[in-house]
């Protein structure tokens, strides 16, 4: 079996709606994976998922043959390598602020001579075959999160890093860094302008661009605007909103007592 490649999807001119799993559950992971998402992501940064749970969720996602990405907790080469060895086919790395950080991230994702990844694809070789190392040269995706003013200032240098496939925008952290409240839906004009700048510069440099969104309308709009990938909220936010809405419909006096996740 070939490694499912999000780069191949993009190079064919197609766009991705990305399913996002932050809840530590194989059942919810399988439910999300059974929907016709173009890509799937397990969140180990702000989600409640550790390495072992991410592995079992990834196995549950085997019902789908789309690319599976992991958002790592930090730019930690050992952790990145372990997740790739588990069988993830791409990595989203948060808080990439400089060229040096982007270089370290990309290096951890690739074997020599391109990078510094240690060889030991324990599950990946079982899932994708004995030629995994050869496939990994071109089919593992690297997405650097651009989500601070510092990253915006250093964007031109970051985009020159060989082997960086895409940038991924975190609007909430970007907003905080620029002095605005965090939001995925009501985005300040200055932050929205920065988002457009990041996308345009990335694509002009031959990279792809993804973004996190808070609802289906924003996700559809971002893809129409030219983004290559838009994450459709998170499983926690979708689940909590659905429960709250159904409860209010069944018992209107629930009112403001219902709770919705912010992320």
TrEMBL record:
SUPFAM superfamilies: Phosphoenolpyruvate/pyruvate domain. Residues 25-240 form the HpcH/HpaI aldolase/citrate lyase domain. One of its GO terms (molecular function) is metal ion binding. Keywords: Lyase, Metal-binding. It holds the Pfam family HpcH_HpaI. GO terms for cellular component: cytoplasm. Gene3D superfamilies: Phosphoenolpyruvate-binding domains. It comes from the Bacteria. Belongs to the HpcH/HpaI aldolase family. This is 4-hydroxy-2-oxoheptanedioate aldolase. It comes from Primorskyibacter flagellatus.
